[in-house]
Structures are given as C-alpha cells and as structure tokens.
Amino acid sequence: MGRRVTNQRGRRGAEPPVAPSVAILDTAFHRASLADPHGTSKAERDRRRAELKIVRAGATVVRHLRLETRRFHRPPLGEFDRALVAGRFGDGSLDRSLLRVRRAEERIRNLARDAEKDAHRASGSEALGDLIRSYYGRLSSHVREVDADLANLREIDAFLDDRPRLDPAAPTLVVAGFPNVGKSSLVARLSTARPKVADYPFTTLSIAVGHADLGFDRLQVVDTPGVLGRKRRANPAEAEAETAVRRAATVVLFVIDPTGTSGHTVEEQEELLGRWVKEFPALPIIPVETKSDLTRRPVDRVQVSALTGEGIDALLARIRSDVTPRGDLPPMEEATVEEIPDYLDEVPAEAQAPRPSRPRRRQR
After folding, report:
1. Please, which residues have CB within 8 angstroms of residue 182's CB and are 6 or more apart in sequence?
2. What angle do CA 131, 136, 140 make, to 5 degrees?
3. 37, 108, 170, 218: which is deepest, by most CB within 10 A?
4. CA torsion, points 161, 163, 169, 171, in degrees to nearest 10?
5. What value does the mean pLDDT of the chain take?
C-alpha cells in the first residue's frame, strides 16, 4: 500500500500515483546535465554542450518509451493474451496506447534533430540557453501527453504478469465448469499445476497453467475460474474463463459435480454444457463427472475422483484420443531407430575426424 496522507479537509487518503513522465524526464535531464565536452574555446564548448544535452535528453526519453512498450513487441502478444487484454481493458485500448507512444517517439526524434541543427547554427551562450530551455519544454510536453497511455500500458503489463503465457503452438486442455465443482483438484491430478484448492466457490480468480505428458506432445492444462453461464452479466473472472475456451482451447474438459455440494444443480450445469456444445461445434468438449467417491450416476461419461485417483487413467486416455499431435508420428518400427539429423548427413571433409595413420613400411 502507498503512504497515507491527510488532505486539506483532514481526511486520510492514498497518495496519488506519480505520473510516468516525471521519472522519465528526471532521468533524461540528469543525464543531459552531465555533458562536459572538450573544445578549443569557451564558445565551442558551449555549443557542443548544448548539442550533447539535446541528444542525450532526447535519446534517454526515447529509450525509456521503448522500454515501456517492449513487453508487447518481443515476442508479440498472442491471440489469447490479446483477447484477455481486450476483455479487461476494452477493444483497441492496447493498440491505441502503443500507437500514441510510438507517435510521441517520432515527434521527439524530429524535435531533437531540429534542435541540434539550431544549436549548431546558434552563437552565444544566451541564445544557446534559450534554445535548450525551449527544447526541454517541448520535450516535456510530448512526454506528458502520453502519461495516460504509459499508465495504461503499465497496468496491462501488470495484468499479464499475473497470468501465465501460453505457447500457441502447443495443444491446450482448458478445464472449465461452474464454481466449486472440483476443477482445480482435477487440474492438480492431471498436470504439474498446483492451484489453490478450497471448499468454497470462486477460489480460482484467474487462469493458471500446468503441463502434462501425452507421450507424443506436452499438453498445456489450463485451470479457469468458475463460470455461471451468464451471457451479459459475467464478472471479469468468468470472462477470462470463457476467453480461454474461445481463444486457447484445443480440447475443453467440462467438469460436472453431480453431488449437489457445489451449490449448483446438475440441470444448470447440463444447460451450460449444452449451450457450449452448440456454440463451439468444432471444439472437442469432454464432459467429466467429479467426486465419484461420493456419487456415481448411471451415465455414459468418464467419472473421476481427484481425491482417490479413480478414473484418472481413463480420462487421460480420452484426452489423448481427442488431442491431435502437432506432427506426423513415424511408423512404430522407425520410431525405434535413432535418426541422424539432416545437417549431419553431409559433413565437410575438414570437419571430419582424422583417421589414425598407419606406420609406413621401410623400403628395402
């Protein structure tokens, strides 16, 4: 928490956050103030100092602006991350902020280029001083204009830091369903993830990722917050869960609790399952009933108990059948033979290991 301050009316409130431009400009002006060039005369030193201040201040600001946006370019955000950001911050919010910061960089570069030319032509310390003050003022204005965008980018960055990155090329199993039906316990059984498990709803507030070995591929297993099937009244956590289903899933594991201990009826859960099957006809959705150690129904579905491990092997077999490997598998007889990479097929003669030399026979 930030420090608490007392306002003019005597009430206690949080200290307002410092604008991003303050630290950026402080750093830029401090670096510029350290300019100490050489020269044969005072006039030459003054001119070079002015030029160096212009270049250092502008370059420092541009470098810091690029640092603020680097997270979103290296590597570029995937479709899933972009969908999460759009759901929380609004469509186009990220791109608008990135565009405005990039335009600010361009204006600052042009401003520095023009100011450096003016400094080269100026004569006298007074004229150079006026030029630097004018340049600093316009530079500060350009940075302050994007304060709101820099704050937005930092908030988006922190939001993404709280969520794991998904490999878009890897198969992804999204575990979804109503709150408190046993999703997190099942994820802990299926993967390396260790989500928080508690006997009350909405324990999972954002997505979490673990991994499982399919034998031919590494499967990403995504634990999602509970959804209540509300189309227009979903809270942010529910929206993240539905985004994972829409944008990231190779297969969806829809978890149903038949015991009634979750606080949601089987009919409610079946209704949401039916709606998703219609909304995503091309997406494999595996219904699985949990807590089989408490209740078993006469249904043709995989039934598991995360507590005892019952049914987990059968569930993994079903998942494997619905997840297509990324590459073609070789025939079984070929898979048992170690293959030599293509780049080792043709080894230059100079790179080959020398053969042991044989002693020459003496000629008689």
Report:
1. 255, 257, 262, 290, 291, 306
2. 150
3. 108
4. 160
5. 81
